Amino acid sequence: MDDENLRRVYEQYWLHARHQEVQRLWFTNIYSMIVAGTFAYFGAIKGFSTPLLVFLILLSILGYLVTYSWNIPFVIYSRLAEEIAVREWDLPKDYRRFTKYRKGYEFGKMVSANTVFIGFYSLMAGIFVGLFLQTNLEVCTQLTLVIIAVLFLTFLGCYKFYLKPKSIDKIQDDFEKRIKKYDENNQK
């Protein structure tokens, strides 16, 4: 493939990865407006409406699922773009963003945007389930807080220990193996 076509592929990979980020942000903006509007309505009627709480629970679970599904193509296309830069244009290690072999900042290992968005929707689902139970079953506040914490940790744990290792971590590991092999072959 000639260099011009390869540059186009590289650019398209980055554009697609960025598109996934933008979709996630737009969905979260719309979600936040719906939640804010619903809370304004709850304030106006001075109480919670069961159908609206069920809607917010389902919307939060949808947010969790679409965020997860948009994280996968982001990881795929951003890693492919970096792989092109490394293998075809010999991007120095200091400028690599997604390999563990880079030098410099390691902030990404502590927290990632993917995990923050998943955590947000996990927390919101827990809060709305807690409000639903408190409103309809008159569960005490302490038990409601425990339920919120348990649901938050369950959703987040499901992502971190089940969904992410089977998808995003696998994509990242495959990418790192290819880059490491390329680096080893270039050092010889």
Offer a quick outline of the entry.
This protein is 82% helix and 0% strand. With 188 residues, it is mainly alpha-helical.
Tell me the span between the first and last alpha carbons: 25 Å
Strand content: under 5%
Q: Low-confidence spans: pLDDT under 50, at least 5 residues?
A: none
Shape: elongated
Q: Into which percent range does the helicity of residues fall?
A: over 70%
Number of helices: 5
Please state the average pLDDT score.
90
Q: Helix and strand string, N-terminal first?
A: HHHHH
Radius of gyration: 21 Å
Classify the oligomer.
single chain
Description:
- The protein has 188 residues and is mainly alpha-helical.
- Helix content is 82%, strand content 0%.
- It contains five helices and no strands.
- The chain has helices at 3-45, 50-89, 113-137, 141-166, 168-187.
- It starts with a helix and ends with a helix.
- The model has no long low-confidence stretch (mean pLDDT 90).
